[in-house]
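Whiteboard transcription, Tuesday session. T.W. wrote the C-alpha cells on the left side:
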C-alpha cells in the first residue's frame, strides 16, 4: 500500500485562491465576509460586494456572539450556527473554540437531537452527501461529486439509532455533520478534509413516511442481502475514491453496528464511536472515579441498564483494562452484569440472546425489575445506556448508596430527555455521596453547603483525539488498544481540583489539550504496533501540534498596496 500523504496544517490551504468575487464569498472555507481588507477587496474582485467598513475577526466574533445569544431557543441558535458555518467556517470555529462550553451543547448534544427531529424543516443548504439505495451500482461515481478530493475523515450513518431517539432515517444527517464539526473544533482536523455522509436505506418510522417535510426515501428499511450489498459497495467506493480516509460508523442499529465493525475494521481504518468511543469515555470516568473511591478496576462490579452497543462496548473495554491489572478474562466478564428490556441478562432465561450479550449472560435466577437486580448484583457502579428516562429512581440510588460509600452512577443516555436520572436527583438521593456523570450536560448542584459539578461523559473527549492520532500516523487499523490508551490518557488529565467537586472529566475548556494528548497516545500505539504508515517523528506531540487547524484569517493579497 502506498503511504498516505502527510496531514498538513493550515499552511497547506489557501496559499493561493482560484476563485474571486461572488464565488469567493460563497466558499465558506475561504470567505472572510466583512473582514476582507481593502487590498483584498481590490485584488479579489470584492469591491462593492461588501459593506465598506472592514471588521477584524474579533469584532465579527463579538457581533456573532451577540446575535447567537439573542435567539429565543436552542433550536434557533442551532440554525444560526449552521448558517454561520455554511457562510464562514473560520468565524464559526473561532466562536466554538472561544466559547466552547456555551456552544458545544448547541451544535451537538443535547440540541442536535431536536435538530435531527426537525432536520427536514430546517434544512437549508446541502452539507455532506446523501447516498441512497437508488445509487446502487454507482456509489464511487457519486462520491467523486464531492468538491474536495483529499478527504481524510468520513463520518457515516444510516440513521437507524439516532441518539436515544430511534430510527430517523435521512434526518440523522445532523449527527455526522455535528461530529465532524467537533473534529475540527476539538482536535484541529481541517474542515476541508472532512465529509459527512448519510446512507439512506429507508426508514421503518411510519410517522416519517407520512410527514410532508421528510427528506429521505419513503420506504421501509432495506435488510438482509440488499442492505449488506449496499454497504459493501459503499466501503469499496470509499477505498477507491478516498484511499487514505478514516471511516467512523455512527448511530447504526444494534443488528448492524457490531457486525459491520467486525467485518470492515480490518479492511480500512474505521471504528464505531457508539461502541468504542462510548466505551473509552465511560471507562475513563470510572478510572478517575477510583481516585475518589480509593479502589481498583479489579475490585469493581458493574450493572448496566441497556445491553446494546454502548453498554457491551464499555464492558468489553473494561475487560481488557482489568486483564492488564491481573484479572482473567472470564473473571473480568463476571464483574459485568446487564439488564435489558426483558430483565437481567442471564443464561437460560427463555429467550434467544443477541451474540454481543452472550459473554455477559451469567448463571443466576431471572430478575425483571432493575431495583431488584441492583439488590441482587450489589454493583459498585451503575451505568445507564438504555435511552429510557427516569429509570434510576430514588429507591435505586438509595440502594446504591447503602451498598457503597461512594456509589458510581453514570446516566449516559442522550439527549437530556432520555437521561436515566438528573444530577440533582443523584446527589440528593445519595446524600451528596454519588460520583455522577451524564451524557448530556447538567448544571452544578448545591447540596448541604457543598458544590457538586457533574462530569459529562461525552464522546467529544475521545473520538476527535483518536481520529487525529490515527490520521497523523497513517494507521492501517484503529484497534481496541488505542481506545484503551485514550481512556487512560483522559483519566490522567482529570485534576485534583476537578475531583474535589466530584467531576471525573476535565472541563471542556481544555478539550484541545485533551485531544492532543489522546492523539499522541494513539499515534504512539500505532507506531509501536507496526500499524503506522508514516515515519515516526522524534517528538510525536510536537509534530501533531503543528498539524492542528487554527481558525484564524489568512491574507489572500499580501504585499504592498
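and on the right, the sequence the group agreed on:
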Amino acid at each position: 500500500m502506498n503511504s498516505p500523504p502527510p496531514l498538513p496544517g493550515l499552511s497547506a490551504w489557501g496559499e493561493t485562491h482560484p476563485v474571486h468575487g461572488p464565488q469567493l464569498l460563497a466558499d465558506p472555507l475561504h470567505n472572510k465576509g466583512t473582514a476582507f481588507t481593502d487590498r483584498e477587496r481590490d485584488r479579489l474582485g470584492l469591491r462593492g460586494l461588501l459593506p465598506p467598513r472592514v471588521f477584524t475577526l474579533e469584532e465579527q466574533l463579538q457581533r456573532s456572539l451577540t446575535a447567537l445569544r439573542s435567539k429565543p431557543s436552542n433550536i434557533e441558535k442551532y440554525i444560526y450556527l449552521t448558517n454561520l458555518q455554511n457562510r464562514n467556517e473560520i468565524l464559526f470555529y473561532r466562536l466554538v473554540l472561544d466559547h466552547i462550553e456555551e456552544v458545544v451543547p448547541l451544535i451537538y448534544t443535547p440540541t442536535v437531537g431536536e435538530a435531527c427531529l426537525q432536520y427536514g424543516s430546517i434544512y437549508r443548504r446541502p452539507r455532506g452527501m446523501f447516498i441512497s439505495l437508488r445509487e446502487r451500482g454507482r456509489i464511487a461515481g457519486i462520491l467523486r461529486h464531492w468538491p474536495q478530493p483529499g478527504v481524510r475523515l468520513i463520518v457515516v450513518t444510516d440513521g437507524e439509532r439516532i441518539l436515544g431517539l430511534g430510527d430517523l432515517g435521512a434526518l440523522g444527517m445532523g449527527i455526522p455533520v455535528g461530529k465532524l464539526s467537533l473534529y475540527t473544533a476539538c482536535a484541529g482536523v481541517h474542515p476541508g478534509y472532512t465529509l459527512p455522509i448519510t446512507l439512506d436505506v429507508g426508514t421503518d418510522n411510519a410517522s416519517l413516511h407520512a410527514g410532508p417535510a421528510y427528506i429521505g426515501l419513503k420506504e421501509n428499511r432495506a435488510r438482509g442481502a440488499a442492505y449488506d450489498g449496499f454497504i459493501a459497495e459503499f466501503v469499496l467506493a470509499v477505498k477507491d475514491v478516498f484511499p487514505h480516509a478514516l471511516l467512523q460508523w455512527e448511530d447504526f442499529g444494534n443488528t448492524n453496528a457490531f457486525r459491520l465493525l467486525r467485518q470492515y475494521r480490518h479492511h480500512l481504518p474505521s471504528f464505531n464511536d457508539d461502541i468504542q468511543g462510548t466505551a473509552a469515555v465511560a471507562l475513563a470516568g470510572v478510572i478517575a472515579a477510583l481516585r475518589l473511591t480509593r479502589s481498583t478496576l479489579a475490585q469493581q462490579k458493574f450493572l448496566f441498564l441497556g445491553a446494546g452497543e454502548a453498554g457491551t462496548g464499555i464492558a468489553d473495554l473494561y475487560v481488557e483494562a482489568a486483564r492488564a491489572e491481573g484479572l482473567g478474562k472470564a473473571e473480568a466478564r463476571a464483574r459485568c452484569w446487564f439488564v435489558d428490556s426483558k430483565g437481567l441478562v442471564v443464561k437460560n432465561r427463555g429467550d434467544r440472546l443477541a451474540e454481543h450479550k452472550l459473554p455477559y449472560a451469567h448463571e443466576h435466577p431471572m430478575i425483571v425489575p432493575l431495583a431488584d437486580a441492583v439488590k441482587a448484583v450489589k454493583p459498585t457502579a451503575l451505568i445507564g445506556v438504555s435511552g429510557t428516562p427516569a429509570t434510576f429512581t430514588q429507591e435505586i440510588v438509595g440502594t446504591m448508596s447503602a451498598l457503597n460509600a461512594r456509589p458510581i452512577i453514570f446516566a449516559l443516555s442522550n439527549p437530556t430527555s432520555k437521561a436515566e436520572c438528573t444530577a440533582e436527583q443523584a446527589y440528593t438521593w445519595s446524600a451528596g455521596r454519588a460520583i455522577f456523570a451524564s451524557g448530556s450536560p447538567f448544571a452544578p448542584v448545591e447540596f448541604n453547603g457543598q458544590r457538586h459539578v457533574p462530569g459529562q461523559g461525552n464522546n467529544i473527549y475521545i473520538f476527535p483525539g483518536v481520529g487525529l492520532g490515527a490520521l497523523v500516523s497513517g494507521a492501517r487499523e484503529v484497534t481496541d488498544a488505542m481506545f484503551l490508551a485514550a481512556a487512560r490518557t483522559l483519566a490522567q488529565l482529570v485534576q485534583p481540583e476537578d475531583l474535589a467537586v466530584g467531576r471525573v472529566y476535565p472541563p471542556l475548556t481544555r478539550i484541545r489539550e485533551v485531544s492532543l494528548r489522546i492523539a499522541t497516545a494513539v499515534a504512539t500505539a500505532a507506531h509501536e504496533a507496526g500499524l503506522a504508515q508514516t515515519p515516526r517523528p522524534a517528538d510525536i506531540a510536537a509534530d501533531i501540534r503543528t498539524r492542528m487547524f487554527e481558525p484564524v484569517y489568512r491574507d489572500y493579497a499580501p504585499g504592498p498596496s
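Someone added at the bottom: Confidence is low (pLDDT under 50) at residues 8-15.
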